[in-house]
Structure formats: structure tokens, C-alpha cells
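JOB MANIFEST
job_type = single_chain_structure
chain_count = 1
residues = 61
[input]
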Amino acid sequence: MTQNAWRKSSYSSSQGDNCVELVGLGEAVGIRDSKAPDEPELLLTRETFRALIANLKHYRW
């Protein structure tokens, strides 16, 4: 995956903590921790990613 394809979440803090990055990969979505870009990323189907986001919206932080 190319470095410039990753996008940081707009909800990530400006202090560099809690940074999530996403990349569209056709039928999949890649998710990684921007503080550890060389670590393995999580790959989800777009359907699973939509379900994850829907569930996170209902989670009480």
C-alpha cells in the first residue's frame, strides 16, 4: 500500500495520540495506527467496515 493513500481520521487528536488512518482498497478498507505505520494493518470488507462504524456510533465513550 502506498504511503500517500492513507488518510488520518478527522477525529484524531492534534497531539498525535489516538490516531487512526484509513485507506480504500477496492472492496476492502485498511485501518492502522498512525504511530505504528510499519505494524500490520487491519483489513475489513466495506460491509464489515460500515457495520463497525455503525456500532461505534452507538458506543458510549
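[summary]
The chain has one domain: 3-58.
Residues 3-58 form one domain.
exit_status = 0
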